[in-house]
Structures
1.
Amino acid sequence: MIDGKKVLYSGMQATGNLTLGNYLGALKNWVDLNEEYKCFFGVMDLHSITIRQEPSEFRKRARNLIALYIAAGLDPVKNCLYFQSHVPAHAELAWILGCFTYMGELNRMTQFKDKSAKHADNINAGLYTYPVLMAADILLYQAEYVPVGEDQRQHLEITRDIAQRFNAIYGDVFVVPEGFYGKRGAKVMSLQDPLKKMSKSDENPNGSIYLMDDADAVVRKCKRAVTDSGNEIRYSEDKPGISNLLDIYSGCTNKSVEEAEKEFDGKGYGDFKLAVAEAINSVLGPIHMEYERIIKDKNYLDGIIKENDSQAMYFANKTLRKARKKIGFTDIPRKE
Ligand code: TYM
C-alpha cells in the first residue's frame, strides 16, 4: 500500500510501433484503473534490448512512449511514468531473482520459444532471462495488480512462483501479484490472420492497426480485414475474423459483444467493417491530438521524467534494501 492505495504495476517495451493490441490489452485498462490504485507504469527499455535497437531511433521511441502514456489519459502527477533503465534496482533485483529461478521454468516460456524462432540469429541470454527481469519490475514495487494482455499470463505465473519461493525462504519480502486481464481486447488478433496475435513486428502492415495510423489507414485496413464465410455478424469460434472485429468494436465503444451483435443484426460485413473503423478512429483521434501537443513541450516532458524517476527509485530501493538484508549481504557503508 502507498498512500492508502493498493499498488498496480505495468509497462511496455519501447520497440516498434505500438498497436491497437497494446492499447486494448493494456493501456486502456491502465487508464480505467489509474484513479483507484497507486500506479507505476514503466517504459521497459531494458527488456527492449533483447532485440537489437538502432540507438537514435530507440532513444526517440522511449521518450515518445512516455508522451503516449500521457496522451492516452495517464495523469503523470498521480501516476509514476518512468524509464526502467533509470532505476538500477531493476537490474540488481533481476540478478538476485535469477538465483531463485530454475532453468526448467525458463525453458517452458512460450514467448522465449516464439522470439527465438523469429530472431534465430540473436538468441541471447537476455531473451532467456526476460521473465526474471519482469518479475523484478513487478516485485520491486510490491504490486498487487498487473494489468497485461493474455500473452503475458505465463510471465505473471512465473513471477508469482518466484515471489512465493523467495518468501518461503526469507519471510514475507514480496507481495505476490495478481494478473489483471480485461474482459475485452486481452488478445487482439491480426486483421490479416485472425488466428495470430496482432503484433508490432508483423511483416504484413495490414495485419496491425498502429496507434499512430491516420484515419484513412484505419479505414483501409478494416475494409481489407480477413473475414469468414457466411454473412452473419456473430461471435463464435468458427468465425475468428468477425469475432476479432467484434472484440475490437466492443473494446473501442465499451459496448458488450452482445449489444454489438444486436446492433449489426441483418447488416452486411461492409457496413460492420466501416463501423469498426469509425470506432477505432474515435479512440485514436483524441490521443493523436494530445500526443502532438505533449511531444512539442520539451520542458514539460523533461520535468515529468525527472520527477517520476526519483519517485520510482525511492520505492524500488526500499524493497531492494529489504531483500538484500534478508539474503545476508553486508551493509553498504553510507558516505558521510
Ligand atoms: P509489450 O511491449 O510486448 O506489450 C505491452 C502490453 O501490450 C499487450 N499486448 C496485447 N494485448 C492484447 N492483444 C495483443 N495483440 C497484444 N499485443 C501486446 C501485452 O500483453 C502487454 O501487456 N513483457 C511486457 C513488458 C513488461 C511488463 C513488465 C509488463 C516488462 N516488465 C512488468 C508488466 C509488468 C510486454 O510484453 O510488453
Note: The chain has a mean pLDDT of 95.
2.
Amino acid sequence: MNKRSWAEPFKIKMVEPLRMTTPDEREAAIAGAGFNTFLLRSEDVYIDLLTDSGTSAMSDRQWAGLMLGDEAYAGSVNYYHLEDAVHRYYGYKHLIPTHQGRGAEHILSRMMIKPGDVVPGNMYFTTTRAHQELAGGRFVDIIGDAAHDVTSTEPFKGNVDLKKLQAVIDTYGPSKIPYVNLQCCVNMAGGQPVSMENIAAVGALCHRHGIKVMLDATRAVENAYFIKVREPGYAKKSIEEILREICSHTDGCTNSAKKDSLVNIGGFLCVNDDALAEEARNMVVLFEGLHTYGGLAGRDMEVMAIGIAESVQYDHIRARIGQVEYLGGLLEKAGVPIIRPIGGHGVFLDALKFLPHIPRDQFPAQALAAALYVESGVRTMERGAVSAGRDPDTRQNIFPKLELVRLTIPRRVYTQAHMDVTAESIITLFEEPERVVGLRFTSEPKYLRFFQARFEPTQGDLVLNRSAKAGAASAR
Ligand code: F0G
C-alpha cells in the first residue's frame, strides 16, 4: 500500500485538559450569554473555534524565548530582535510595534485619513473599517464579485477588481484616497487569498496615481502558501521569498501577529516612508507605549520574533492549512454547504443554505453558531449581518451577501480527532436543521456590535429544540 497519512508536524509536550459539558449545561450557558458565543465563558467550551486570533500554541523555542524578555522601558534587546525578523521576512523599512492589529489600524487611520476621504479595500474587516470611519473616512469595497458568490470556486477569490479600483479613483480622485487597504487571505470572504499577479497590479495602478497601498498582512503567510500551490511560477519559491515579494508591492502594513505570527498578543505597523514613520512613532507613544515596545512586554516581542521565523517554515504552514482542508473535506463530503475553495484559517458554513427556514432578519448565522454550541460544545462565530452592523448614514442593518458561521482553527492546538468530532456534530445538525430557531436583538452595542450584543429566540426559550431522533445527542 502506497498510502501515507498526513500527521501534525509536532509532538505534544504539555497538555491543557478540556472540560466536557452536558446539553442541559450548554442550554443554560448560551442563554446566560444572550445567545452570543463571544459572551460564553471559555471553561464552558469543549472545542474552541471562535477565532484563530491569539489562540495559537507556542513552540518550545518560543516558551524559552519568554525567559529572555528584556523589560527595559526603552531600547529593549527584544525590540531589535523583532525589528530584524520583520526586516528579514516582511522587508519593510520602519517597524512600529503595537499591542495588537487594531492598535496599528488606529494609528494608520488617524495619521492618514482626513474627514471625507474614501479608503478602498478588498472587502471590509470589522476593526479596520471601524477605525477608518472613526477617522472620518468611508470604506469602499473593491473586491471581485466572485468573493460574494458562494458558488464560485476561483482560486484567488480575494482579488481586487481592478476596474472597480479604477472607477473609485476616477470618481473621487487620488487626493481623496489616502491609501488602498489590501488584505491577504480575506477574512470576511472566507479566508480567500489574493494572487501575486493581482497584488502587483494593484501596486502598479495605485503607484501610477500616487496612491499608497497598505497591506493587511495579518494572514500574509497563509496567502503566500496559496500562491505557492496555486499560482503558476511559484511552486519552487519558498514561503519566505513569496512573503517578501507580496510586501514589496506595497508601502507598508498593519499586522495582527496573533494570527500568522504564532503569538498570543502583539501586532505591528510598518511603513517605508520616513516622514510617515516619524508621525507613527509620535502617535504610538500616545496610544500604545514607547516606540520600542508599543504596548508589549519585552518577552512578547521576543516570542513574536521567533514566531515569525517559525511561521514561514513550509512544514508548519502546509500542516496548518492542511488541517483546515481536512475539516472542510469532511463537511463537503457530507453535503454541508461551505464556502469554497476552503480558506486559509477556517471553514465557513453558508448559513443561508444551512437554515433556509430562518429569515435574514432573524440572523441565521448567529442562530446556527448558538445552536452548534448547544449541540456539541463547539464554539464558532457569526460572520454575517450581525458582524456587518449598520449603515453609517441610514442606520439600517446591512445584510451582506454572505451570511456565514466561521469555524476558525487555532494554529498547532487541536488534532485531527478534534476535527472529526466537530464535523460529526455539524453533520448531525445539518440532518435536522429545522430544530434551529431564529434570534432577535435584546441589546445592541454601538461599536462592533457582534462582540457584546445579546439576543433571544424568536419562539420559545431555546435556540435548538431537542432532537426527535433518539440518540442524536452530542459529544458528552
Ligand atoms: N485584520 C484582520 C484581517 C483580522 O482578521 C483582524 C483580527 C484584525 C485586522 C485586527 O487584529 O484582533 O489583533 O486587533 N481578527 C480577529 C478574528 C479578531 O477573529 O478574525 P487584532
Note: The pocket of F0G is lined by residues 51, 53, 100-102, 125, 127-128, 183, 187, 216, 218, 256, 258, 267 (CB under 6 Å).
